[in-house]
Hints:
The structure holds two protein chains of two kinds. Chain A is mainly α. Chain A is 85% helix and 0% strand. Chain A contains four helices and no strands. Chain B is built from seven helices and two strands. Chain B has helices at residues 23-45, 53-72, 75-96, 112-133, 135-141, 150-185, 193-223; strands at 9-14, 17-22. A two-stranded antiparallel sheet of chain B has the order 1-2. In chain B, strand 1 (9-14) and strand 2 (17-22) form a beta hairpin. In chain B, helix 4 (112-133) packs parallel to helix 7. At the A-B interface, helix 3 and helix 4 of A face helix 6 and helix 7 of B.
Amino acid sequence: MAIEGTDLIQASAFLGAGLAMGLGAIGPGIGEGMAASKACEAIGKNPSEAGLLTRTMLVGQAVSESTGIYALVVALLLLFVV
Amino acid sequence: MEELGKIHQLIVPVFGHEMAFNIEVIIMTWIVIAALIVFAVFATRKRGVVPGKTQVMGELFVTQLYALTIDALDERLGRKFAPMICALFMFLVISDSLGIIPHLEEPTKDLNVPLSLGIMGFVIAHYCGIREKGIKKYIKEYMEPFIIMLPLNIIGELAKVISVSFRLFGNIMGGSIIILVVSHLIYNLVLPPFLCFFFGLFIGTIQAFVFTMLTIVYIAVQVK
């Protein structure tokens, strides 16, 4: 069975989806970890403001997560549309 | 796994063009709206100084979101926009966590719903900006700091809509795909309730809050 052009396109689309998800998840992971560590420090210094700090941290993390979500959307497009 | 990525569409020919309706999304949106109406009726039916259970929940939603909106905007505009913000947040919370009930799907899983909500926020923000500042000052804001930055500023405004709607869509879609894949891997023997609760309730509520918050912030940026 010879490898045809469509197989090649399919294989590279799957490869691209994996690469997009894997590389795109690095940035949000590091960023959210840094946000959580700073929030931990702030709660340690000022435990009475824990609720406000947690809420702000969650919103900031959800916003910085969006680059990872774009990677997910690109990976889904490569998997199901190409 | 076969149902992954498939949607049921109703295609109606109108004057040579074809209009496509995503049936499941429409029905799920109706269910969400019905749930909201039932909640509102039960929350306001027996009002009293000593509130019942649903009345406490309704009051919690309304007071918190009013405080949030009045913080971000000023007193007058905050009171004007707070009902819209309340409706947006409650709609998004219920529609994001609808997936924890079997055989129901989140309407926000389809890109049409978040994108239309994002465009709604965009139009409201810009209309209110023009009304508050006047058309001259509004157009002048796009020429800041030089006139060369005009296309960049326009693209920046349009990118806000894309980012806010794709964030909600991607989170809900990704969560539901992960739930589907995991339940396929264990041959549907056990429903993965923890994943459902994590993605449905936790992530769904946070993303609904972020969407609402960003809509308020976009309105506040345009008004000031």
